[in-house]
């Protein structure tokens, strides 16, 4: 009663303060919709009243004596909602008021800017329907409750359910409408054009919902529906809980403006530090319709130091106002997380689940992926490029030089495909595939490309590594897809480059766990290759550098029936390859001579090295602004490919230069006077490449590619390799670290002689693999301790013999060493002609190609220039072992030319 008695003056004060509050917060209420209040608010309520409630009293019901304020006749009674009362319609829907519709449009227009156009279109359609038919009563009720009490998980679920239902219904209706109109159209067409082609079939053909209404069609619970429903739920929420604004006030304002006037419905203590003031909105709205405080979702709040102090204050205030215990304000307590808290709490989990779904759908390939074999993102689809003869590939067999046998084999495959009948008539089965193997750069890919260019059948090219992905199941799926595509275009060829990426022997190197995927990819290839029948004319070619590690199941007849090995080119092969690449080069030199000289200079070069050297020559010529590429450019280019860049900027001290000169002179004299050593081509003391201070180039003894070496050649080669160090010993008081590379070569040669080539009587005819050849040998030596000791002694003996041979010669030729070294110091580079001038002709005849291209009557190497040293020949010249890598010891025991000559170099450090 006390509050009722004070009403007149209180209302007067309230009117002033409300007007003030309303004008202050109008700006707030007009700003764009903000993010709704936290979804997850946990409330516990306790009645602050000190006296028991009366029966029927509800928290928030008008305090006794205040009931008149809430009667319809009172000035503070709730006003009609703007736009007229909400009319529940007959099918449980309530129409939106014009203001609500306007608001909905505003929010949608704002948010659709950041939305994909198709989605915006769908949501727009949905909203049209909502505007026309209204929203379910249940939804409005849930919204009203949310506006009053905030969002809770249960309400969020209700929104979700209802909006999803609405979206689904709308989609169905639109689909049906469209279908009807299409049917109508079809009927009309049929009646207008009753021709035979216009069959009933077309008119009655059921369109899939997708075709009619791409966005929401069918309403499978897919990602786009998920997004649309989520967005619609948000729009609805924003519509009914339009503002979540709040404004901070002080305790005094609260007391004077609200509490004293009996406008407070209840107080909510949030997180123990803030009190949200719930007002009797109807009362406020009827008096001050403009005030934001009249809108649902708007709250005043004030901060408190401690809950106890706040409780005391409220109690005192109510005591002062004389409010009886039974009418006191209810106070409840809530813990609310902010949006950021909610996102932080659930974000990682959602991200994790999302990522797993995303990956499994990407990787899933077939089932359920929604996009055929590729899955929705096309991950499982093969990346193979398809070429036809007409399009793309310009490489022809003529562009592939120096591998006639391989070309012939491949051509056979092509003719199998083109004229299978010729072979089938004789009862032959078409081979399934061929493996092209060989060292890097020997033209395997080029050969396959040329096959594509010549064969006239479709050609699918893919690299083995393209089957390897981090996602499980992608590899096999891509293999399936590749073969499925190939079968559609038979006859055709599939080329898998670097097949070792997936074709490694199964079960080996099983450590690390990453093998399962690779193995299943390989198994899929095996299955697919078995899967063709003879009428399916698909041939699979595969390229690899490591045929030794391939799974034997791949290599068995019926899969890769043929094994085509492509070695480094021979002298003749190199000539042909130079021929191919020189075609594009502008040169006025005699091409025959250029090809001959260059191929003699490049033992161990692969096709790729040759292509690179020719290109380098053109670049060097361009750099020196020459109008055509001449011999000296080619020679410089070859040096550069072998020895690396000249380092003119690296200045050696005179003392160091002298050491290098004597070191190189030692090698040169040995090469000159040992019968089976490699004849010198050029020696230089200009630093180049990685730490090489001096550099000498030789050609293989015998003037051609060497496939075999006898003991004499080996001993001469070792003695020559030691020539540098021996010369240092003989000419200086101390030695340097520059001979380490020479020692490495000598030791490897001697070890190979003892352990592999049966050249030591003490060890006998035994073969002991070295660590790089066999994994077992890395951990356990394949010989006894005693044999190990014997190997050591024998290797030492051989090296000592070579040393003695070298020392004897250099002691004898002490003067010659001095002459060559001094000349080298003066000119920095000596050619074979300089050696002849200084020492007289070499006492042994030069043979073969060497004589033909570098002998008497031929232009000196270097084209008369004095500053272009050439690469050299003592080297890591071990060809690939039977199916093995190139890392073995030294010269070629059997089968195959020398590897890339590494040059005899005086190294900067050990
Ligand atoms: N026989 C050849 N005739 C002409 N050019 C060749 C020949 N061999 C190699 N080349 C040149 O070398 C380049 C590289 O060759 P390619 O890619 O075919 O080597 P690869 O054997 O497939 O090497 P990798 O094993 O490293 O893949 C070719 O583009 C071509 O220019």
UniProtKB/TrEMBL annotation:
Family membership: In the N-terminal section; belongs to the AAA ATPase family. In the C-terminal section; belongs to the peptidase M41 family.
Ranges annotated as spanning the membrane: none
Topology relative to the membrane: Multi-pass membrane protein
The UniProt record lists the keyword Protease: yes
Location of the AAA+ ATPase domain: 430-570
Record's protein name: AAA+ ATPase domain-containing protein
Renumbered residue ranges of the record's region Disordered: 1-101, 170-211, 849-910
């Amino acid at each position: 009663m006390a509050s009722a008695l004070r009403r007149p003056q209180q209302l007067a004060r309230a009117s002033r303060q409300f007007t003030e509050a309303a004008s202050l917060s109008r700006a707030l209420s007009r700003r764009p919709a903000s993010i709704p209040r936290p979804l997850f608010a946990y409330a516990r309520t306790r009645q602050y009243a000190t006296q028991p409630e009366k029966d029927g009293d509800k928290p928030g019901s008008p305090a006794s004596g205040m009931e008149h304020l809430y009667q319809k006749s009172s000035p503070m009674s709730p006003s009609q909602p703007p736009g007229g009362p909400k009319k529940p319609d007959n099918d449980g829907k309530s129409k939106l008021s014009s203001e609500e519709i306007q608001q909905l449009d505003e929010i949608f227009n704002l948010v659709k800017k950041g939305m994909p156009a198709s989605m915006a279109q769908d949501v727009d359609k949905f909203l049209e329907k909502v505007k026309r038919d209204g929203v379910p009563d249940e939804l409005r009720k849930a919204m009203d409750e949310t506006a009053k009490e905030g969002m809770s998980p249960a309400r969020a679920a209700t929104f979700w359910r209802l909006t999803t239902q609405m979206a689904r219904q709308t989609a169905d209706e639109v689909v049906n409408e469209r279908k009807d109109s299409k049917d109508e159209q079809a009927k009309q067409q049929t009646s207008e054009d009753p021709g035979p082609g216009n069959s009933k079939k077309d008119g009655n053909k059921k369109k899939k919902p997708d075709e009619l209404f791409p966005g929401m069609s069918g309403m499978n619970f897919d990602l786009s529906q998920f997004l649309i429903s989520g967005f619609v739920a948000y729009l609805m929420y924003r519509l009914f809980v339009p503002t979540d604004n709040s404004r901070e006030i002080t305790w005094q304002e609260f007391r004077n403006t609200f509490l004293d006037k009996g406008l407070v419905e209840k107080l909510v203590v949030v997180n123990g530090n803030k009190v949200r003031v719930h007002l009797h909105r109807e009362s406020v709205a009827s008096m001050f319709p403009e005030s934001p405080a009249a809108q649902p979702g708007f709250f005043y709040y004030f901060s408190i130091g401690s809950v106890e102090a706040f409780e005391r204050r409220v109690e005192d205030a109510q005591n002062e106002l004389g409010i009886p215990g039974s009418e006191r304000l209810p106070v409840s307590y809530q813990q609310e997380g902010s949006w950021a808290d909610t996102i932080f709490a659930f974000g990682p989990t959602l991200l994790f689940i999302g990522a797993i779904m995303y990956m499994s759908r990407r990787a899933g390939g077939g089932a359920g992926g929604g996009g055929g074999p590729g899955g929705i993102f096309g991950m499982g689809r093969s990346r193979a490029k398809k070429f036809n003869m007409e399009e793309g590939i310009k490489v022809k067999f003529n562009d592939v030089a120096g591998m006639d046998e391989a070309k012939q084999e491949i051509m056979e495959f092509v003719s199998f495909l083109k004229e299978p009948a010729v072979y089938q008539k004789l009862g032959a089965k078409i081979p399934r595939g061929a493996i092209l193997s060989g060292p890097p750069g020997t033209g395997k890919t080029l050969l396959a490309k040329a096959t594509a260019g010549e064969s006239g059948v479709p050609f699918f090219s893919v690299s083995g590594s393209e089957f390897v992905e981090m996602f499980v199941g992608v590899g096999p799926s891509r293999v399936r897809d590749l073969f499925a595509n190939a079968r559609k275009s038979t006859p055709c060829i599939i080329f898998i480059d670097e097949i070792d990426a997936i074709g490694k022997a199964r079960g080996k190197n099983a450590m690390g766990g990453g093998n399962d995927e690779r193995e299943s990819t390989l198994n899929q290839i095996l299955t697919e290759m078995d899967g063709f029948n003879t009428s399916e004319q698909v041939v699979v070619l595969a390229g690899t550098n490591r045929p030794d590690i391939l799974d034997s199941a791949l290599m068995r007849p019926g899969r890769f029936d043929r094994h085509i090995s492509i070695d480094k080119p021979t002298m003749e092969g190199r000539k042909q390859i130079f021929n191919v690449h020189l075609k594009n080069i502008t040169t006025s030199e005699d091409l025959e001579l250029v090809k001959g000289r260059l191929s003699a200079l490049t033992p161990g070069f692969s096709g790729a090295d040759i292509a690179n050297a020719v290109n380098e020559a053109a670049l060097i010529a361009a750099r020196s602004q020459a109008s055509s590429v001449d011999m000296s450019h080619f020679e410089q280019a070859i040096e550069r490919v072998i020895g690396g860049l000249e380092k003119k900027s690296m200045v050696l001290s005179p003392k160091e230069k002298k050491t290098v000169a004597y070191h190189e002179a030692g090698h040169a004299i040995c090469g000159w006077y040992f019968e089976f050593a490699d004849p010198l081509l050029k020696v230089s003391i200009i630093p180049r490449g990685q730490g090489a201070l001096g550099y000498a180039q030789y050609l293989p003894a015998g003037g051609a590619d060497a496939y075999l070496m006898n003991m004499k050649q080996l001993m001469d080669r070792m003695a020559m390799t030691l020539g540098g160090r021996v010369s240092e010993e003989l000419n200086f008081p101390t030695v340097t670290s520059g001979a380490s590379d020479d020692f490495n070569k000598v030791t490897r040669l001697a070890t190979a002689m003892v352990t592999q080539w049966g050249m030591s009587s003490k060890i006998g005819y035994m073969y002991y693999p070295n660590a790089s050849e066999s994994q077992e040998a890395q951990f356990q030596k394949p010989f006894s301790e005693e044999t190990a000791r014997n190997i050591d002694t024998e290797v030492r003996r051989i090296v000592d013999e070579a040393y003695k041979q070298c020392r004897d010669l250099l002691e004898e030729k002490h003067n010659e060493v001095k002459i060559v070294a001094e000349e080298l110091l003066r000119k920095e580079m000596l050619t074979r002609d300089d050696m002849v001038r200084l020492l007289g002709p070499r006492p042994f005849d030069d043979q073969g190609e060497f004589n033909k291209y570098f002998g008497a009557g031929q232009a000196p190497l270097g084209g008369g220039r004095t500053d272009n040293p050439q690469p050299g020949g003592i080297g890591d010249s071990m060809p690939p072992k039977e199916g093995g890598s190139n890392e073995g010891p030294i010269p070629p025991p059997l089968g195959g030319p020398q590897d890339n000559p590494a040059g005899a170099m005086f190294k900067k450090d050990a």
